[in-house]
Amino acid sequence: MMPAMATYVGFLRAINLGANRKFPKDAIRAAVEAAGFTDVETYINTGNVRFATALRSRPRIEAALEEAFLADRGFEVPTIVFTPKELSEIAEHAASFGHGGRHYVSLLKEEPTQDAIAKVEALTSAGEVARVSGRAVHLLLGENYHEAKLTNAVVERHLGVATNRNLTVIEALARKWGG
Description:
- The structure is a single chain.
- This protein is an alpha+beta fold.
- Helix content is about 35%, strand content about 25%.
- It folds into 2 domains: about 5-80, 2-Layer Sandwich (Alpha-Beta Plaits), CATH 3.30.70.1280; about 85-175, Alpha-Beta Plaits, CATH 3.30.70.
- Strand 6 (about 130-135) and strand 7 (about 135-140) form a beta hairpin.
């Protein structure tokens, strides 16, 4: 009897930046399928992929994908996995902020400690706010977000591996793939 399949959403970190880290969405889809995952779909060229698997351990899923991506591309691609329900919860929580500026979400590989959360949230200033909710860090920035001090690099320095998407992408993925 085949084990039941479950759906997950993966977010790839640091791809399609510069000349040496190219990973087009068709190649992502092919690598995920080659790793044995099914029902694979990608969304835009920023490293968003939905797939089904019989695996249930998030760390094992991430490790299998990272191994497949390294074999395919020749460089490491940290991958962060959420369930469709978790993705929907991140998008729903974002709506509660009512922020009128730029809203980005850093998606974390690991659950942060309370101490680390306090350190990141303490970096909040008049024009930039960080709010941590589970494995998501909401960065509420002003219109000059290119000059922001609260960045994914700052999040990673305090909370570990993360990848960043703007809220528009998170909301689109939650509508498309959420649960």
